[in-house]
Amino acid sequence: MDDFPIRYVEPVYRPPSEAEAVILPLTDGCSWNRCTFCEMYTAPQKKFRPRDEAEILETIRRCGEAFGERVTRVFLADGDALTLSTRRLVSALTAIRREWPNVRRVSSYCLPRNVAKKSVEELKELAELGLSLVYVGAESGDDEVLCRVNKGETFASTLAALEKLREAGIKRSVMILNGLGGATLSAQHALNSARLMNAAQPEFLATLVVSFPMGEARFREKFPDYAPLDIMGLIGEMERFISALELKRTIFRSDHASNWLVLKGVLGADKARLLERLRAALAAPESAPLRPAWARGL
């Protein structure tokens, strides 16, 4: 619709938990866009560029006129809106407050490298203006795995970002990719990812299964000996990962469409229950309550 107040460049992505949020693009694409496992922003029309500030402010104003009082959640798109300068983010958040008075949560994807460019004081300013949650794709806590997938981050850089966000009062939802290290690096991927989570103590943690709906050629350029895990291998890696977690109160979800075995709980209160579910599946795969392949939505 030509009169719709937001200009989208498809495909448009948002976390599953932002289903009720208005998706507000501040950038198109991803400023890094070199992770070999990620196909989200590889389409030609998704070439990275920050949106013009005037367009963003006009979009917020028009949305305010159209449905401002009904908006309670906003997700700042695309891949890493926090790559924008603090001044530009302050401008957008201030306009959201003014035009959408009932907004209670603003969230965004977030690359650790972009957090590194901002001070704690700058992040606190963003938090005070409404940025309350960021989704950090850590993917792994293992430096070898991160190198193999060209993530451009390390255990240390990811932890530094997560700690800075915590200090600023911004909640963190961290994603780990089950199976990212393949069979050869599975153990260190699981254990070092748990070590990262134990150090960061994020408010939210999710696991997704790595998948390649458009093929593995790009991924194998830097990881030629990658041997994918089968279903029981993925579940075994999850058992190793959760066994090593020492979290105080982190809301955990492994219910994305890519996951074979749905897991939900609070770690550590539900650690024993989740491990029991995983171990039961490993002991009796034929009776495990696995999601059917057709329902995985990939």
Description:
With 298 residues, the protein is an alpha/beta fold. It has 2 domains: 1-110, 2-Layer Sandwich (Transcription Regulator spoIIAA), CATH 3.30.750; 136-298, 2-Layer Sandwich (Transcription Regulator spoIIAA), CATH 3.30.750. Helix content is 37%, strand content 17%. The chain contains 10 helices and 10 strands. It has helices at residues 53-67, 86-99, 112-116, 120-128, 143-148, 155-168, 186-200, 217-220, 231-244, 271-283; strands at residues 22-25, 27-28, 49-50, 73-77, 105-110, 131-139, 171-178, 204-209, 250-254, 263-267. The strands form 2 sheets. An 8-stranded mixed beta sheet has the order 1-4-5-6-7-8-9-10. Strands 2-3 form a two-stranded antiparallel sheet. Helix 2 (86-99) packs parallel to helix 4 (120-128) and helix 7 packs parallel to helix 9 (231-244). The longest helix is centred in the first third of the chain and has 15 residues, at 53-67. The chain is globular. The relative contact order is 0.10. The mean pLDDT is 95.
